[in-house]
Amino acid sequence: MAPTSILPHWLETALEALRKGDIDGWMSIYATDAVHEFPFAPESMPTSLTGRDNIAAYMRRLPSFIRFGSLSDVRVREIGEELIVEAVGHHNRISDGAPCEITYVWFITRRNGKVTLIRDYMNPIQLQHIASS
Length: 133
Hints:
Layout: H1 9-19, H2 23-27, E1 30-37, E2 48-50, H3 52-59, E3 66-79, E4 82-93, E5 99-111, E6 114-120, H4 124-132
Parallel strand pairs: 1-6
Antiparallel strand pairs: 1-2, 3-4, 4-5, 5-6
């Protein structure tokens, strides 16, 4: 499982939708019964979202305070329908346009080509700082 810096096409397409603020495009990767976990979430944030509709409701809030940008330092490991992605996101706050970075580690499991589980080990303090500014 040698790492690569190239994201799978399905994930790059979904991330491009997110960059455009197209939450429905991002949500197209999820299975109906998907789970999106945030293991490091502070008490004020959810630690797990179950079901595509609940994940979508959470994701629809994000474009009001963050404009998603490019990823750097990408490292991808993929075996079958399991994927590990490490990256640094270069985004901008909506409130003032200031640049901000979020460090990500994603453990993604798929079934029949759809995401069934994402364990999102991003730093929630970085996201809270963006949302509160």
